[in-house]
Amino acid sequence: MAMTRTELTLAVAAVAALAALASAVIAGTVALMNEAKRRRDARHAEELKELRAWTAQVFQHLFELQHETEWITWHALHHPQTVDRKMISAYEAAVHAAFPKLLGAMAVVAAVDEELFTSLKQQADALYDLEGRVALAAISIPEDEALARLASMNGPARGFYEALPERLAHAMREAKVQPQT
Fold first, then answer.
1. What is the SS3 string spanning 139-160?
2. What's the CA gap between 170 and 51, in Å, rounded?
3. Is 98 exposed, middle or buried (0-12, 13-18, 19+ CB in 10 A)?
4. Which residues of 104-133 are buried (b: 16+ CB within 10 A; e: fewer)?
5. Residue 180 clears pLDDT 80, i.e. is over it
6. pLDDT of 38 higher than 80
7. Are 106 and 117 in contact (CB under 8 A)?
8. How high does pLDDT run on average in the chain?
9. Among 60, 66, 71, residue whose Cα is nearest residue 138
C-alpha cells in the first residue's frame, strides 16, 4: 500500500518530532548531569576551604602555645630575674586558654580528614610534651636547678617556631575532603 503525500509528510514530521524530543531529553539529561557535577565540585571546594580554615586555626593555636613556651624559656635563659610567680601565672593562664581551642579545632579536622588529623596530632603531642616539661620546671621555681631546666628548653621551643611554618604549608597541601558522589 502506497502512502499519500500527506501521509508521508505526517510520517516525516512524526520522525522529526521524535528526533527533536530525543535530542531535547538527551540535552536536558547532559545539562542536569553537568549541573550536578558543578554543584558537587563547588561543594567539595567549599568543604576543602573550610578544612583549610580549621587547619589554619589548629596552627594558630599551636603558634600561641609555642610562643608562650618560648617566651618563658627565653626569659629563663636571658633574663632570669623576671621569671616570677606573676610571669608563671600568666604563662599558665595563656596555655590553659589555648589548649581547649586547639583541641576543638583538631576535632573538626579529625571529623573531615583523619590522615591530616593524625599528622597534626603528632605536632600537638610533641608541643604538649614540651609544654608539660616547661610547666613542671616553671612551677618548681625557686627550687635549685628549676630555672636552669626551664632555660634549657628554650632551644626546643625555638625549634617549634622554626618548624611550624613548613608544617603548616605541608598540612595545607595535604588537606583533602572526600568528594561526595
1. HHCCCCCHHHHHHHCHHHHHHH
2. 14
3. buried
4. ebbebbeebbeebbebbeebbeebbebbeb
5. no
6. yes
7. yes
8. 91
9. 71
Rounded-to-integer distance, Cα 76 and Cα 31, Å? 67
pLDDT of residue 104: 96
Neighbouring residues of 106: CB distance < 8 A, sequence distance ≥ 6: 58, 117, 120, 121, 124
Q: What is the pLDDT of residues 124-176, one digit of tens each?
A: 999 999 999 999 999 998 887 999 999 999 999 999 999 999 999 888 888 88
Least confident of 22-31, 75-84, 93-102: 22-31
Is the confidence at residue 71, as pLDDT, over 80? yes
**Short-list 124, 105, 101, CA closest to 50:** 105
